[in-house]
Design brief:
By secondary structure, this protein is mainly α. It is built from ten helices and three strands; from the N terminus they run ααββαααβααααα.
């Protein structure tokens, strides 16, 4: 399976765990802002919204961009580049020590940081402005799809001694879409690469069981065990 943000994967686990954090997956205080960020991405913002934020301190959110439904991918990318450049420019200005007579953009960017943030931190942050698309509607669709296979996955995981919280991982990997395919060739709801998939399934030019939710669920359980 492909690598994902640790906090993003943890979010999916928490959403499906009980109200108390699962014993297998404790939530350190230092990860709380990251988890809160991903909860917003999965539960608050749709795919017609984008969040500009610091890629190391996810709790630092600069702006939420609302896209029009008629804006295509290229137009949205252009908007993201423009807004990201504006935030980076403001951060570089603030990193010189400016704290008075700020522009509206500079004041907004500064307010995203805790009081007393250092010039060094702001300078470093100028190169860390990241865009994350919202996922609320995609996550909801994944919740609906997951009902087709959840019982089977839980039976397989139980038999293998794998914690059931890990049945939530496909929400991060693929939104439970059996046809999902990544740009590096990972495929299926569990996003197995070909090399890892061959360890547990038939993956060749005739049959690719990575896209079979049942075969890949067994394989995922074996790998996670």
């Amino acid at each position: 399976m492909t690598r994902k943000s640790r906090s993003g994967a943890l979010l999916a686990l928490l959403l499906f765990a009980s109200t108390a954090v699962a014993e297998d997956f404790p939530l350190p205080d230092e990860l709380r802002p990251d988890v809160d960020f991903w909860i917003d991405i999965f539960a608050e913002y749709t795919t017609d919204q984008g969040v500009l934020h610091d890629n190391r301190r996810l709790g630092v959110v600069y702006e939420v961009i609302d896209y029009r439904a008629d804006q295509g991918r290229r137009e949205r990318q252009r908007i993201v580049r423009q807004r990201r450049d504006q935030v980076s420019k403001a951060l570089k200005s603030l990193a010189t020590g400016r704290r008075e007579n700020l522009t509206a953009q500079e004041q907004s960017v500064l307010s995203a940081w805790p009081d007393g943030v250092s010039n060094e931190e702001l300078a470093a942050a100028a190169g860390r402005v990241r865009h994350q698309q919202g996922l609320r509607n995609r996550f909801r669709e994944g919740l609906e799809r997951s009902g087709r296979w959840r019982d089977y996955i839980e039976r397989e995981f139980t038999a293998l001694g794998v914690t059931l919280d890990l049945a939530a991982l496909p929400h991060v990997e693929s939104s439970y879409n059996p046809d999902a395919r990544s740009h590096v060739g990972a495929s299926g709801i569990w996003q197995f690469t070909r090399s890892t998939g061959r360890r547990f399934m038939r993956v060749d030019h005739v049959v690719d069981e990575r896209n079979d939710p049942f075969a890949s669920a067994r394989a995922a359980g074996q790998l996670l065990a």
